[in-house]
Structure formats: C-alpha cells, structure tokens
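Long-time lurker. I teach an intro course on protein structure, and each term I like to show students one example going from raw sequence to a predicted 3D structure in token notation. This year I'd like something fresh instead of my usual example. Would anyone be willing to generate the tokens for the chain below so I can use it in lecture? Attribution to the forum is fine with me.
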Amino acid sequence: MLYLSDMTLRALLVHPFHGDLRPGQTHRLPAVEVTLLFADVAESTELTSRLGDRGAYSLIRRFCNVVREAILETGGEALELRGDGALLAFTSPRAAVACALQIQRACAETGPLAVRMGLHTGHALRLERGYFGQALILAARVADHARPGEILVSSQLRARLGALDSLRVGSQRAIAIKGFPQPLDTFSIEWREDESRTPLRAAYAPVAGPHAVSAL
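-- Reply from a regular --
Happy to contribute to a lecture. Here you go:
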C-alpha cells in the first residue's frame, strides 16, 4: 500500500487555477473589486504571413517584454501572458490605465505592432491564481470590440477614474454583449503623447501586495 504525506497529498489535489477548493466551498472565495485588462496583438496571423516566422516572432517577443516592463512599473498582476495576448489584473483602476498607456506607446515605437486593449472594473471571485465572474467576461468583450491600436474602457472603469486632466477620453460608444440584456457603454482613451498634459503615472501609486507582478 502507498502512503502519502499530507503535503504530498495536498500537492496532488491542488488545481493550478482553483487551488484546493472543493465543490460546495465557494463561500471561501472573497469577492473583490478588480480592474482587468485584456490585450492582444492585432492581425498577428497577417504579421506572420508578411514578415515570416522569425520576423513575426521577434515582434511578439517585443510585445511580451513591453507588457512585463509595464506591469513591473504599475504594480499589476499577470494572469496570462503567452503568445500574442495578455490578461492583467490591478487593484487600482488608474494603474491599469497607466499600464495600458505605457504598453501602447512602447509598442508604437516598434512600428507595425498594433495592440487592441479592453479594460473593465467590477467585482469578481478571487481564485487561487485568477478571477471568476462577470467582470472577467465584460473585460474580454470590451477587448473584442476594441480596434487595432485602441484602448477601450467600460463606463464602470471610466467612472472610477474620476476627473483626470491628463486623460483624453473619446466619445461614448455602446456595445452589445451576448447574454447581457443591456448594451455596455464604453469610451476610447487616447494614448498618443501630448506634452501639454501631465503623464497619468504621476496621479497614482502602484499597489503592492497580492497584485504584485507574478513571475513570468
């Protein structure tokens, strides 16, 4: 008969995403406010066709490096960062937007690297290594409606930002989301530099703790 230590048994039962949570124990999960950022390289398939495998891979690696640098500076948590896409989480809505601005500006210096971004603030269940709930779904759908080179945020996130002189917000745009009865109002945020305005990074302080950048 095989005997396992408590530590070994727990390691076998722990799910990399859900931890050791069992069915019927969802009351153990805290509901927290989080700002989620989805980003992906637009037309990545076309990049491979136009630049070849090596050229496209070089750009994708540049995208990943830019994301890593941005979350280190803004205090985000990388939930996923693979290939041409990323999912990041923040306790501070302002830090999330600052991260999005930094990624877009850095990617623009690379040339043909256009990135779509969608952000949403809401409450979600905090799992061992991620989140679950409508906030995650809405953030993903906002990203789906973002255009190449655009930062698109939900009205919930826009309201949490308050009045920021450094932020240039476009007109309201309602998007229909399958499964939700009402359209979601969104706003585009201009990310191109304007020397007459104060950088957003001066208006927030990165939050340390459970949202510190994860190892990549």
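Some talking points for your students: The beta strands are 31-41, 77-82, 85-90, 115-127, 130-132, 151-154, 168-175, 184-190. The helical segments are 6-13, 44-74, 93-108, 134-145, 155-161.
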